[in-house]
Write a structure and sequence with these properties.
The complex is a heterodimer. Chain A is α/β, with parallel strands linked by helices. Chain A has a nine-stranded mixed sheet. Chain B is an alpha/beta fold. Helices cover 32% and strands 20% of the residues of chain B. The N and C termini of chain B lie close together (9 Å). Classes of the chains: A alpha/beta, B alpha/beta. Chains A and B meet through helix 2, strand 3, helix 3, strand 8 and helix 9 of A and helix 3, strand 3, helix 4, strand 8 and helix 9 of B.
């Protein structure tokens, strides 16, 4: 397979809403338009510059609208244009960005608006994620009920001390204070408060879980010529990949799924990364429950198997650490489910554009955006850089 | 090859399979409905799931009645070791489009595309009302037949058709379906009573369950996998405003624009597979695609019977592409157009032009 003919893809616009528990002041259309308009403003482009729209969100049941992109076509300026709707569970925000990037890479379109959203206040995500249907094991009570046993398995396998999960949450919530768009701004957060919060799904505590947010995230992707016209520095896509594996089967490793490893390896290969720990400057990873930071550090190749928690414990993943993870505050601070993956991708782009504001990692040149979904079975990742990719 | 490609890579449909479309499939889960189709389409190419470069599916959670319904269906693919895979919450025709784009990037040489829908567990007319603007339209529960009737009435009022002509569309579709062993309704079907005037039972699609799958391949891989590949010489899709009051329901500018972008009008076609679930929508689509009003102009319109003979929601559009491709595979067509639609009254439309190598 040849990839040499691909058009380089640049992120020239990023827009987010201020994520909150409930946006009672806007419709679904108002919510998505807000993020899209901000992305266009960042790129200094207009609706007329957009050739196609790629939109993603998690299940339609969260808002109670079947295929809402049909209704949202007008709000997103898509009338007369192509519009695609991606749905790959929790990884959807990342997958959506990758589908949009492929449209540019394939030279099918030159400038593409991509957007992901969730207005979780329209429903109850906890019960939306509990599936009492026949012929399939239920996800118990929400996603936490599904993932808690896998966290437990990680702790048993690696001997990680109990405190690691709380340290991640404390870090991410402090990082969120520097991000004006983050949902949770807990100004009085302390490690002790995280550790004293109620146990929800042992070993996952209340303050180690993501909130339910309303929010949207948008990006403008364009080709080399579009990037040349961009008034602000672009983020270049150096690699992107999706991988999936089945939800349930006897050989599946829920602690470190093979699909995640393969996806990361594909992205590193495309980007020419041989030592991710040294060559990547910032990581926005999908951590809905705090313990997933050490787990994904291993899965993504930043730490040897069993060693991820040591990086967290040593402060490597702090905002001023050697490998900052979730400088934005991450999913633990902001979780409009369908948008959460795209926020990771967009925050990675902001880092290498040098536009991340107070949570900017100084001198970040290469950043990884990561998303996962389903029963830890769908993965989407991209690596963005400040420089035009080599090939 | 008889054409100049407008794209970086030549990509073809090299295999197509579909289920028998049935009014009810209570005994089958969605995975069980999809698996035989996946096995059939892969067997036709000799490829295994693990050898496919990219997999993409189309389906709808609302139709399935549960969130994340596609996660289970993926199990039917045999996604181990992990595969490069994606899903659209749309008809499978758009999953095919995403896969085609992926092949155009050079990151894959082959793709497996599948889609499915079971309408039987609920009332699909009610379910589809949930597609509408949730603040102004959906609370009124206008169903898909009522909205199609509005469109049919606009066509009749504009002098574009009449009830007898619509009955003719239905009769021709179902007669054509006689040669389609997968169709749900075959042979003569009475036009029946009014469902919502001016549409009678015969003007409306049957409600049913079904699945379809296609394999795409690029260049020499396509030639190796298929004796006569159905080359996708053009493909494009466009969406229109959602509000019915903002559109001229007697026309489909999005279909026309997609067809232009796909190069449809550059040469004549001999086959058209149109995703027109209602007889009246065929009238609109024929106009937008520049096809004559009826038989006798040399174009076989819906030789499979079309969506009036089988309309598994979320798969019916992909089936149009598959049926058109299958005619090219067996030498019954040299240049065909396939169309898929989504949304109320033809809001979103995809057009693909397929061509076979000429001797």
């Amino acid at each position: 397979m040849s990839t040499s003919g691909k058009e380089p893809v640049a992120v020239v616009g990023v827009g987010q809403t201020k994520h909150v528990a409930a946006r009672h002041d806007v419709s679904l259309a108002g919510l998505v338009r807000e993020a899209a308009a901000r992305a266009l403003a960042d790129a200094e482009l207009t609706w007329a510059d957009v050739d196609a729209v790629v939109i993603g969100k998690a299940p339609d049941f969260f808002e109670g609208v079947m295929m809402p992109e049909l209704y949202l076509a007008d709000a997103l300026g898509a009338v007369g244009k192509p519009m695609l709707r991606v749905h790959t569970a929790g990884s959807v925000g990342g997958s959506t960005a990758l589908v949009a990037a492929n449209l540019v890479a394939a030279r099918v379109h030159r400038t593409v608006l991509t957007l992901a959203f969730e207005k979780q206040s329209e429903s109850n995500a906890m019960w939306g994620l509990s599936l009492p249907i026949p012929f399939q094991q239920p996800l118990l009570a929400g996603a936490g009920g599904f993932f808690a046993p896998h966290v437990r398995a990680y702790m048993r396998r690696t001997g990680a001390p109990d405190a690691v999960g709380s340290m991640v949450a404390y870090k991410d919530r402090r990082n969120a204070l520097k991000n004006p768009y983050a949902h949770l701004h807990e100004h009085d957060i302390t490690l002790e408060k995280v550790q004293a919060s109620p146990m929800l799904w042992d070993p996952i505590r209340y303050s180690e879980t993501c909130p339910s947010s309303d929010g949207a995230c948008a990006m403008v992707l364009t080709d080399r010529a579009g990037a040349a016209r961009s008034p602000k520095p672009p983020a270049w896509v150096h690699g992107g990949a999706m991988r999936s594996e089945p939800t349930l089967f006897a050989g599946k490793d829920f602690v470190s799924p093979q699909a995640g490893k393969d996806c990361a390896a594909d992205v590193y290969r495309q980007a020419g990364i041989t030592d991710p720990r040294r060559e990547i400057d910032a990581v926005e990873m999908y951590v809905p429950f705090s313990w997933y930071e050490p787990m994904w550090l291993e899965n993504l190749g930043f730490a040897q198997e069993g060693e991820g928690w040591k990086m967290t414990e040593a402060g490597v993943t702090e905002l001023d650490g050697d490998l900052p993870v979730n400088p934005s505050g991450g999913v633990l601070s902001t979780n409009p489910i369908g948008a959460s993956g795209m926020i990771r991708f967009a925050e990675a782009a902001l880092q290498v554009r040098g536009l991340a504001g107070e949570h900017q990692v100084p001198g970040a040149r290469r950043a990884l955006g990561h998303a996962y979904g389903g029963g830890a079975q769908f993965f989407a990742m991209w690596l963005v850089g400040a420089e035009l990719p080599a090939s | 090859m008889p054409r100049t490609s407008r794209y970086a890579r030549d990509v073809a449909v090299v295999a197509f399979a579909q289920s028998d479309h049935l009014r009810r499939t209570d005994e089958l889960s969605e995975v069980e409905m999809v698996m035989p189709v996946l096995h059939e389409v892969l067997a036709a190419t000799g490829l295994k799931a693990g050898e496919i470069g990219f997999t993409c599916s189309g389906s709808s959670d609302y139709l399935a009645g549960r969130a994340f319904s596609f996660t289970m269906t993926l199990d039917g693919v045999g996604a181990w070791p992990p595969i490069s895979e994606s899903h659209v919450e749309m008809d499978g025709a758009w999953a095919l489009y995403e896969a085609w784009v992926k092949i155009q990037t050079g990151e894959a040489d082959t793709a497996l595309v599948y889609s499915y829908g079971k309408s039987s567990p609920g009332s699909v007319r009610d379910v589809l009302t949930r597609q509408l603007d949730p603040y102004y339209l959906a609370p009124l529960w206008p169903d898909s037949v009522a909205l199609a009737a509005l469109q049919a009435r606009a066509l009749i009022d504009a002098g574009e058709t009449d009830e007898a002509a619509l009955a003719g569309v239905a009769a021709r579709s179902r007669a054509a379906a006689e040669g389609n062993p997968h169709a749900q309704l075959r042979g003569a079907v009475p036009q029946g009573e009014y469902q919502v005037a001016p549409l009678r039972t015969g003007d409306c699609p049957p409600i049913g369950d079904g699945a379809a799958a296609v394999v795409l391949a690029a260049g020499d891989t396509a030639r190796r996998l298929c004796e006569r590949p159905a080359w996708i010489t053009g493909i494009d899709h466009r969406i229109e405003a959602h509000g019915l009051g903002l559109r001229d329901l007697t026309d489909s500018p999005s279909t026309r624009l997609a067809a232009e972008r796909a190069g449809l009008f550059e040469a004549p076609v001999d086959t058209a597979e149109l995703h027109a679930p209602f007889s009246s929508q065929e009238v609109v689509l024929r106009k937008a695609l520049g096809l004559g009003p009826g038989d006798g102009d040399g174009v076989a319109v819906n030789p499979s019977g079309g969506a009036l003979a089988a309309n598994p929601v979320m798969a019916a559009g992909l089936i149009r592409i598959g049926e058109a491709a299958a005619r090219i595979h067996r030498g019954a067509s040299d240049r065909a157009v396939a169309h898929a639609t989504s949304g109320p009254c033809l809001q979103q439309n995809l057009v693909a032009v397929l061509e076979g190598d000429r001797a």
